[in-house]
Amino acid sequence: MNRYLYDGTADGLLSAIAWILEEEPDPEQVALAERQDTLFEDGFFLATDAIQAEDLFFRLRQQAPDAAHTLYSFMLAEKEGMESSLLHYIALAFIHGDKVNGYLTHPAVRDIVAVAKKAGRELHRMKGLLRFEKLRDGAYFAKMEPDHNIIHPLAYHFRSRLRAQHWFLYDLRRRTAARWNQGTLQFGTIEQFTAPALSDDEKKVQALWQTFFKTIAIPDRKNPRLQKSNMPMKYWKYLTEKQGE
Amino acid sequence: MLKKLQILSGAARYDASCSSSGSKREGPASGIGNTSNSGICHSWADDGRCISLLKLLLSNDCQYDCAYCVNRSSNVVERASFTAREVVDLTLDFYRRNYIEGLFLSSAVMGSPDQTMERMVRVAETLRTEEQFGGYIHLKIIPGSSSELVRKAGLYADRISVNIELPSQASLERLAPQKHKEAILAPMALIGREIASSLVERKTSRHAPRFAPAGQSTQMIIGASPENDFQILRLSQGLYKKMQLKRVYYSAYMPVSDDNRLPVLAAPPLLREHRLYQADWLLRFYGFSAEEILSDDAPNLDESFDPKSAWALRHPEFFPVEINRADYGTLLRVPGIGVTSAKRIIAARRFSAITPEGMKKIGVVMKRAKYFITCSGRSFEKNDRPAALLRQQLLLGESPAPARSTQLVIPGIFS
Ligand code: SF4
User: Fold this and answer.
1) Which residues in chain B have Cβ-Cβ distances shorter than 8 Å to A208?
2) Residue B404 pLDDT
């Protein structure tokens, strides 16, 4: 079994996979892993080629759009140690097209699809659970600490939804931020974070929402277990309706 | 404002519909908001239900006196009404902070039906035209309002609905004397026609106005009147087929008054509501007809079995079903196989025959399915069990159904 190494970046991973699919007759028999800086590692190192990486994604999107979507979601998870599975999955996707996602009896397909699903689920959840607060200068600001690195797709979602307002997203876990202002979306990092001042009516609107949240529940049907399973407690920290309960 | 919100969202809380899906709208370039096809939940309330819309009554100050309703004029409750502007601002403030997908506005009859409907339409109109709001709007049509206002409502809202309220005209006359069957069915039919013609027009011109793009739904109250489940399901079937409704919602009657026209219930019939929803799914997604699910001899849904298992038990000749050969429609009829797992089975068997192991991975509920299937000719259980024994086996094996049935708490136990 041939063993290959790459540099640990997303581009490196995809370009390594592209190279292996090109050169290896049976990718199922190939292993791929991130290079660790030890002297004793065996395997061929494949250099990163961003153009190859992009080309691979592009071809996959043409031949198997669902699989490309799965790959995208999988990358959001920043999972380590699943490179070989990803390689096998992509190899299968080029053979079977989008039908590959139905091939759940194959361990690589099952693992990749499961990770991608989880990332996709958090992204979908966050589209609902993200809370903006209005700042003194009229901009809106939202904080989050998601398990997956979803700030990009999340920002695109809000770009089309909250077009007419100036807003920021901030991922405290990764210190990354997105900013939408007058038609441009930018991504960056925030190293030094100080909480910005809220606008004067912000607390009033929050109190209205908290009231609505309390009132809309049917009193006789309290069901904290169901509530927590739909809305895990790890997200409560930034939920306006869960403050001061 | 806090107080008003408390009264008017509290009064809207029993409205079952929380779905905000089924409409895809690119918001206006200068405004805010869009709607997405998959629907987004923004929070889950203390009762575990999804919150996606700002659900409000415009007013609870009702001129009518429907026996089953808290807002009936003869009842003593605190009354309040919003102005159109107040609702508009609240919606925008919530939407900009990503609390909600949009607005679900209903109302008691304040003054006259037209007066009420006019103010509701004004809310939607202001949101769409002045504020360029692209989020979701669902308006309830007040029975008896003019067709002009109904048309306008449909142009601004994603979904409009008329509550059918009770499953028969006799019950309507008895419990809601000011509402007439005609006042409910006429707008329904009008909406149905408008939706159909707007779809046709949009085929020829993409700029033709969209009329209630997410369709029409309705709601009826279960357990306040004597109709049986068979009557109810046949009514729903008719609404789906003849009026092209998107959804019928069932709402278990909450005892809110001791009016002697109403039955005395110890608790709202939640299990019945749950079974009706399951049967409704069979109508909409599983290719069943009301007549297959129930009959005049057995006019009510079985409390101990979901309607699909009940059907399967009555039709032993249909089974066992061979997983590796049966078509989609047949797979769907197997208890324990849902829409998702049926699709997965079809997808997975293209690669190789599905093994018993693979069935579980696909998500089939084997505990129930195993009595009804074979896998490449192999059966899991003796399929020729006498029906009575099978019933028992299924009952023992039936795990508590997820989500909805967890609502089956005896009221008061937690409070
Ligand atoms: S018209 Fe509506 S709000 Fe008024 S009493 Fe009847 S059901 Fe209640």
Assistant:
1) 1-2, 5, 90, 93-94
2) 37
| pLDDT tens track for B159-193 | 888 888 888 888 888 888 888 888 888 888 888 88
Residues, chain A = 245
Could you give the CA distance from residue A149 to residue A119 in angstroms, rounded to a whole number? 8
C-alpha to C-alpha distance for B104 and B92, rounded to whole angstroms? 13
Which chain B residue has the Cα nearest residue A168?
B97
User: Which residues are CB-contacts of B8 (< 8 A; sequence separation ≥ 6)?
Assistant: B56, B57, B58, B59, B60, B80, B81, B82
Over 50: is that where the pLDDT of B407 sits?
no
- Name the class of domain B2-219: alpha beta
DSSP string across B18-55: ----S--BPPPTTSB--B-TT----EE-TTS-EE-EEE
Q: What is the pLDDT of residue B18?
A: 42
pLDDT at A131: 96
Higher pLDDT, A62 or B304: A62
Residue A152 in contact with residue A123, Cβ under 8 Å? no
| Inter-chain CB proximity A161 and B10 less than 8 Å | no
How close, in Å, is residue B138 to chain A by CA atoms? 17
Report CA Rg, chain A. 22
Q: Rounded CA gap, A227 and A234, in Å? A: 13
If phi over 0 gives left and psi between -120 and 50 gives alpha, with beta otherwise, what is residue B289? beta
pLDDT tens track for B216-253: 888 888 888 889 999 999 999 988 988 888 889 888 88
Residue A85: which of A114, A54, A56, A59 has the closest Cα?
Answer: A114
**In sequence order, what E strands does B243-355 have?**
247-252, 321-322
Contact state of B2 with A130 under an 8 Å Cβ cutoff? no
Rounded to whole angstroms, the Cα distance separating B172 from B235 reads 14
Every domain of chain B and the residues it spans: 2-219, 320-382
Minimal CA–CA distance to B35: which of B43, B25, B45, B44? B25
ipTM: 0.90
Alpha-carbon distance B100 to nearest alpha carbon in chain A (angstroms): 8
Residues with CB under 6 Å of ligand 1 are B 62, 64, 66, 69, 71-72, 108-109, 176
Q: How far is A99 from chain B (nearest CA, A)?
A: 7
Cβ distance of A215 and B34 shorter than 8 Å: no
Ordered by start, the domain boundaries in chain A are: 2-123, 130-242
What confidence tens digit (pLDDT) does each residue in A109-133 have? 999 999 999 999 999 999 999 999 9
| Angle at CA of residue A68, ends A117 and A18, nearest 5° | 120
Chain A CB contacts of B5 under 8 Å are 208, 211-212, 215
Cα of B110 vs centre of ligand 1, distance in Å, is 10
Between residues B87 and B201, which one has the greater pLDDT?
B87
Residue B37 at interface with chain A, using a CB cutoff of 8 Å: no
